[in-house]
Write a structure and sequence with these properties.
The complex is a heterodimer of chains A (112) and B (112). Chain A is mostly beta strands and 112 residues long. Helices cover 0% and strands 55% of the residues of chain A. Chain A has no helices and twelve strands. In chain A, a hairpin with a 4-residue loop joins strand 8 and strand 9. By secondary structure, chain B is mostly beta strands. In chain B, strands 2, 4, 5, 6, 9, 10 and 11 form a seven-stranded mixed beta sheet that branches. Chain B has a four-stranded antiparallel beta sheet with strand order 1-3-8-7, with no helix packed on it. Chain B is globular and about 35 Å long. The mean pLDDT of chain B is 92. Classes of the chains: A mainly beta (112), B mainly beta (112). The interface between A and B is medium-sized, with 23 and 25 residues.
Chain lengths: 112, 112
């Protein structure tokens, strides 16, 4: 069965620190990959997506993610986090028609 | 542009009661989805619809029903509420199966 793993459950960083959140999935076929962000009290919003092409994708607010097919990974990165990045981050993998699997989420707390 | 609107935002039910969670979108999206998000878990798909009149089960459909009489509306029905259905419910919509989903603000449901 397909699964999405986000190994970091809670990450605490100081402002200006660099961020990398891990995402691994188990599926051997073609996938579409997403990172969603959920700010406190708000709904999920799309941060970035990968369908095909350049495996390094850039999203909103300075986030980027790299698809490494051989490692089944799609890690999220940001060179310098801000307090406003405090949120929960969800990796999602789409394996086919209406098969969108979410990871359990990583809570990011940025300390001013 | 309202996007995806869910009502109510909060609700407390007694065991055995029934209720309908409303979801409407004004983006003319054919694809609509219902997810539940349990604490510390990722989103799990309950039901989805690929267009008016067409619905299908997701990963965790038991205890729920849906209908899709119009493109805009995709209500989720709980017939006999059980404590296991305490969760946050998210509705989402998309233009196509390969496009990112737009999420509503969620409905927090507690069953006591």
């Amino acid at each position: 069965a397909q699964s999405v793993s986000q190994h970091n459950h809670h990450v605490i960083l100081s402002e200006a620190a660099s961020l990398e959140l891990g995402c691994n999935y188990s599926y051997g076929g073609t996938v579409n990959l997403f990172w969603y962000v959920q700010y406190p009290g708000q709904h999920l919003q799309l941060l970035l997506k990968y369908f095909s092409g350049d495996p390094l994708v850039k999203g909103i607010k300075g986030f980027e993610a790299e698809f490494i097919k051989s490692k089944f990974s799609f890690n999220l990165r940001k060179p310098s986090v801000q307090w406003s990045d405090t949120a929960e981050y969800f990796c999602a993998v789409q394996t086919g028609a209406n098969n969108l699997f979410f990871g359990t989420g990583t809570r990011l707390t940025v300390i001013p | 542009n309202a996007g995806v609107t869910q009502t109510p935002k909060f609700r407390i039910l007694k065991i055995g009661q029934s209720m309908t969670l409303q979801c409407t979108q004004d983006m003319n999206h054919n694809y609509m989805y219902w997810y539940r998000q349990d604490p510390g878990m990722g989103l799990k798909l309950i039901y989805y619809s690929v267009g008016a009149g067409i619905t299908d089960k997701g990963e965790v459909p038991n205890g729920y029903n849906v209908s899709r009489s119009t493109t805009e509306d995709f209500p989720l029905r709980l017939e006999l509420a059980a404590p296991s259905q305490t969760s946050v419910y998210f509705c989402a919509s998309a233009t196509h199966i390969n496009q990112p989903q737009h999420f509503g603000d969620g409905t927090r449901l507690s069953i006591l």
